[in-house]
Design goal:
About 40% of the residues lie in helices and about 20% in strands. By secondary structure, the protein is α+β, with helices and mostly antiparallel strands. It has a single domain, classed as Nucleoside diphosphate kinase-like domain (Alpha-Beta Plaits), CATH 3.30.70.141. It has a four-stranded antiparallel beta sheet. It is globular. The two termini are about 15 Å apart.
């Protein structure tokens, strides 16, 4: 079994899509281990997006991610659960995401693409440690 981290971003919460998104993961056979609706502050976003600090899009990204609550969660499933989640999310750009993926079915613009998922087991461990330190 492995765990991964997801964020249903503010646009997903604002549009009332969190239940649909989480249900997709559960129907796939993944288990919701932890979830919390949170308003993400500059400190936690700085830790989460540390590799993007100083990049031209960083301020817009953190403004979007802190404009309203987001649902942060941990999912558990088979080895490399992160890869299952990433496939289900679809490409970052919703215009390129195929139907049947979260972004393909619900996404409209690249800068507000509904969901984040860890991109590796190492990233999942780091991100779970930031948002749910009691789980690591």
């Amino acid at each position: 079994m492995s765990r991964t981290f997801i964020i249903c971003k503010p646009d997903a919460v604002e549009r009332g899509l969190v239940g649909d998104i989480l249900a997709r993961f559960e129907r796939k056979g993944l288990t919701l281990v932890a979830a919390e609706l949170r308003l993400l502050d500059a400190d936690i976003l700085g830790r989460h997006y540390e590799e993007h600090v100083g990049k031209p899009f960083y301020d817009d990204l953190t403004s979007f991610m802190s404009r309203s609550p987001a649902m942060v969660a941990v999912l558990e499933g088979p080895d490399d659960t992160f890869a299952i989640v990433r496939t289900m999310m679809g490409p970052t750009n919703p215009a390129e995401a195929p139907p049947g993926t979260i972004r393909g079915d619900y996404g409209t613009i690249m800068t507000e693409n509904l969901v984040h998922g860890s991109d590796s087991n190492e990233s999942a461990e780091r991100e779970i440690g930031i948002f749910f330190p009691a789980l690591v």
